[in-house]
Amino acid sequence: MASQLDCEARTIVLVEFIPDELDRQRVQELFSEIVPVESTILMRSRTSAKYGLVFFYQPQDALTAVEHFEGYEILGRTLRVSLAQYDKEAIEKSQNVDENRTNIIVNYLPQSVTRNEMYSLFSTCGESPQCKLMVNICTGTSRCYGFVKYHLPEEAAKAINLFDGLKIQNKILRVSYARPCSEQTRGTNLYVNNLPEDVTEEDVRVLFRPYGQIINCRIIGEKSTRHQVVPDTAENSPPISKRVAFVIYNQRSQAKTAISMLNGVFYQGNFLGVKFAKLDYLRTGYQNLTYSFGYIFSIIQNYAWYMVFGGLAFYYIYTKFLRTILESTFLSYENYKKQKEEQEYAAKYHKNPDLFSARVSAQQNRAQKLQEQYDQEAREHQAKLKENIILSWNLELPPIIGHLKGASAEEEDVANKYVFLLNS
């Protein structure tokens, strides 16, 4: 399989510094002038520089293209053309083909790679694969891994053989079969610290391989100048290395076995620390929050003036037109609701003549009773008033009448009115 992958790697050519004016079809036509081309893929790096991969049918065709187009000048750019490079360790540890699996996982993708570019890359191994690039829900940026599902197992095997270990933008792709999600496959990632300086990924694989199937292994970090104290050799204590590794097993039980067997083991002069890798949720939450605020701030920074002018325009339109329209609409609705209630009320009683006549009769009886009550109260009030007047004037009337003999015409008229009131 290593030789097969090495042969297939020689049919892929990496083309860098492609001018922005050239699209995928023009690049393919350019290389097709020299040798037959199977397909072409164009992508952009994080700095928006355009580069591409050109797939040939034969390794000799790829070498011919490299010799002819290396240093080729076009549209003010000098092309850099070379054979696609592979990680040799990835080629040596390439996994066996599973004839029943069609879903693969792609790790360590460059963050600038989009879903369309990922689809273009992996569609060279099969027709219409399903591609899913995982992104951060807060920022929308790529999480540098994704999944590809093919229709045939042969297409998935070809993609693993062709792209596992491929170097793109200083990243080495890790392509393997995706594991089905279950309780057994969760929590299988191990964190290994204090590795010796000269240890390689293959050494780590050899160390951890006896305890289960290894899905992935990666070393990061470098040697530190600090020293740890070893009781037996305190004078020449071995260095504490900053190099760490992440080892992913196929099942959680295998990871537990590796921890119990290798944690604290003295390996090549260092005491290894092996434990489950834990995600720092607080740091991740803080980063997501920072990214979210940064994203919002960038929107405000880029569109602040548009937002201000838009707010002023909306306020002007609202005060001039919208408020009047809304108020008239609200009043129209109130009038409509009142009219509808009146219509429903009228329809309710007009549909039943007996009910309507009974209601009219009840209203008339009520009005008659109110009128009778009003008349009775008026008669009582008038009688009480007359009684009070009679009582008050029985004492004052004789002196007034005696005084009227020498009174003026005006005083006589007033006295006559009082007499008339008493008589009535």
UniProtKB/TrEMBL annotation:
The keyword Transmembrane helix applies. Residues 360-387 form a coiled coil. The chain crosses the membrane at residues 293-318. GO terms for molecular function: mRNA binding. Residues 11-86, 102-180, 188-279 form the RRM domain. Keywords: Coiled coil, Membrane, Repeat, RNA-binding, Transmembrane, Transmembrane helix. GO terms for cellular component: cytoplasm; nucleus; ribonucleoprotein complex. Pfam families: RRM_1. One of its GO terms (biological process) is negative regulation of gene expression. This is RRM domain-containing protein. It comes from Ceutorhynchus assimilis. The lineage of its organism: Eukaryota, Metazoa, Ecdysozoa, Arthropoda, Hexapoda.
